[in-house]
Specification:
It is a single chain. By secondary structure, the chain is α+β, with helices and mostly antiparallel strands. It contains 5 helices and 10 strands, in the order H-H-H-H-E-E-E-E-E-E-E-E-H-E-E.
């Protein structure tokens, strides 16, 4: 009996005190959480553990910073792209023309037979009326030399837009160049998947600069810019813009202002008026 009692005491005494009081092993996520808590409270037990903690914390901070940057970029992207037409990549067909609304008088086509008319300020060698088709529109100071196509009004009484970014439209319900009245042209400012279009630089044209209309037989009519006006599309004076004029004139129309992404259109229209000089 005494020998067994001694053996029990010996076995107990031979086990270190730290092991006799150690808790049961931790398991699962709870163990991991408690382990991190102990590590943060008491500090890492070796230089390698300290390095691991610092690397993990750095990666976590970098991930959080990148997420915040992406969120701010997404929230501000709309304002940045909508601020000017130069920064915006065209996303939809942008109409450069006006709706002639019901109840508003339509421009009256000028179908008179060609007659020789005196052009104020023009030389005696200025070309007269001609039946040749319109071929090109040239603006020397802007480097524009564009083909001209003929369009009219669609079924909804909307002036048809050019189908290509580098072409100019002449509207067949307006006067023909070289004859009395107002010949109206339009062109795109920019174009989807293309960027700057034929009238991209038209906002920089100045009063006094020349615009030329060239016919298929080589006849060239010259016009001098007399005005440049920006109108809000919804309230633009359509009859004044595309209607007849007392002098032999041409009118160029393109987009201006801010591009409204909700409706896929620019808010304003730039109208350039020029009068015949040669």
């Amino acid at each position: 009996m005494q020998r067994r009692s001694w053996q029990r005491v010996h076995r107990t005494a031979s086990v270190p005190a730290a092991q006799r009081t150690a808790p049961l092993p931790r398991a699962g996520a709870a163990a991991a959480a408690i382990g991190w808590r102990d590590l943060l409270t008491t500090g890492p037990s070796s230089p390698f553990a300290a390095a691991a903690v610092l690397i993990t914390a750095g990666l976590l901070a970098a991930a959080l910073a990148f997420g915040a940057f992406r969120a701010v970029t997404w929230l501000t992207a709309g304002d940045r792209h909508g601020s000017t037409h130069q920064a915006a990549v065209p996303e939809s067909t942008r109409t450069t023309i006006y709706t002639i609304a019901p109840g508003r008088p339509s421009p009256t086509p000028t179908a008179e037979a060609p007659t020789a008319t005196a052009v104020p300020g023009a030389s005696s060698h200025a070309p007269g009326p001609n039946d040749a088709a319109i071929e090109r529109l040239v603006i020397p100071d802007l480097g524009v030399d564009a083909p001209v196509v003929v369009r009219g009004l669609d079924a909804h009484r909307v002036m048809e837009a050019p189908e290509q970014p580098q072409e100019v439209v002449w509207y067949d319900f307006t006067s023909f160049p070289g004859r009395p009245g107002n010949a109206v042209f339009s062109g795109h400012l920019d174009y989807p998947a293309v960027g700057p279009a034929v009238f991209w630089d038209l906002p920089s044209i100045e009063v006094g600069e020349l615009i030329e209309v060239v016919l298929t037989d080589g006849t060239t009519y010259q016009y001098q810019v007399v005005s440049k006006t920006v109108y809000r599309e919804a309230t633009a004076p359509v009859e004044q813009i595309v209607g007849p004029t007392p002098t032999e004139s041409i009118t160029l129309i393109t987009c201006a202002g801010i591009f409204d992404r909700t409706i896929g259109r620019y808010e304003d229209r730039l109208v350039v008026r020029a009068e015949r000089v040669a």
